[in-house]
């Protein structure tokens, strides 16, 4: 299924197509609590973020259309980010020969200013890495 996005999605590892030498690993995680009548909490790895939502890798599937409460934690921001979202897609993929699920979660209820701050911080870090790499190329030895 082809995705159509209205906003740029920032990969947690930087934009590999434009700058394959630049990688930024946030080391983020998400605790997902589906609002499906169960009390389960699913741990997932944060993969990417944009203004409209997040992408995560999970060992458990959550059906598309399910509302979830989430808590996002990463080293680059101080406090956990808490909100609600809706699972837009759940796709089974292989990672290191293990079946996992790639979940796309659209934000329903979140402080958008916090999202903007996170995206801005990621952009600054990746831009600084690119500048540093370019400066090292132009430095005479």
Oligomer: single chain
CATH topology descriptor:
Thrombin, subunit H
CATH class: Mainly Beta
The residue ranges in which pLDDT falls below 50 over 5 or more consecutive positions are 12-16
Mean pLDDT: 81
Number of helices: 1
- CATH architecture annotation: Beta Barrel
CATH superfamily: predicted glycosyltransferase like domains
| Strand elements, count | 7
Strand content: 35-45%
Instruction: Please state how the strands of the largest beta sheet are arranged side by side.
Output: 2-3-4-7-6-5
What gross morphology would you assign? globular
The gyration radius over C-alpha positions equals: 16 Å
Determine the N-to-C terminus distance. 49 Å
Estimated structural class: alpha+beta
The percent of residues in helical segments reads 10-25%
Q: How many domain units?
A: 1
Characterize the largest beta sheet: strand count, sense, and whether it forms a barrel. Answer: 6 strands, antiparallel, barrel
- What sequence of helices (H) and strands (E) makes up the elements? EEEEEEEH
């Amino acid at each position: 299924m082809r995705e159509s996005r209205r906003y740029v999605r920032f990969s947690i590892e930087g934009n590999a197509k434009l700058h394959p030498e630049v990688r930024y690993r946030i080391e983020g995680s998400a605790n997902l609590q589906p609002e499906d009548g169960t009390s389960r909490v699913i741990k997932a790895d944060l993969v990417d973020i944009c203004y409209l939502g997040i992408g995560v890798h999970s060992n458990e599937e959550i059906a598309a259309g399910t509302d979830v409460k989430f808590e996002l934690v990463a080293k680059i921001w101080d406090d956990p980010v808490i909100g609600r979202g809706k699972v837009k897609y759940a796709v089974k993929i292989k990672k290191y020969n293990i079946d996992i699920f790639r979940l796309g979660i659209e934000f329903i209820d979140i402080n958008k200013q916090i999202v903007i701050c996170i995206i801005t911080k990621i952009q600054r870090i990746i831009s600084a890495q690119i500048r540093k790499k370019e400066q090292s190329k132009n430095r005479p030895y």
